[in-house]
């Protein structure tokens, strides 16, 4: 699953591929916002992304899309 995190004053968004379900990520975001501290998400390789909640602009939760390579007929 792909999670895009917008950070205030950052030109680019953070993109994390996570093995967690959308419900689990939503719960992590809600808990972080309620606590007012940090949002911590673990990616598929076990790396942690930690963002201070006061710097969050948005969090987009989406299913991972596979990109086609080459020429395809649609």
TrEMBL record:
<keyword id="KW-0547">Nucleotide-binding</keyword>
<keyword id="KW-0067">ATP-binding</keyword>
<protein>
    <submittedName>
        <fullName>ATP-binding protein</fullName>
    </submittedName>
</protein>
<dbReference type="InterPro" id="IPR021456">
    <property type="entry name" value="DUF3107"/>
</dbReference>
<dbReference type="GO" id="GO:0005524">
    <property type="term" value="F:ATP binding"/>
</dbReference>
<dbReference type="Pfam" id="PF11305">
    <property type="entry name" value="DUF3107"/>
</dbReference>
């Amino acid at each position: 699953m792909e999670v895009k995190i917008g950070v205030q004053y950052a030109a680019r968004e953070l993109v994390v591929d996570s093995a967690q379900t959308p419900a689990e990520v939503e719960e992590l975001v809600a808990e972080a916002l309620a606590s007012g501290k940090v949002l911590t998400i673990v990616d598929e390789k076990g790396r942690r992304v930690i963002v201070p909640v006061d710097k969050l602009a948005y969090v987009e939760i989406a299913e991972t899309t596979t990109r086609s390579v080459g020429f395809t007929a649609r």
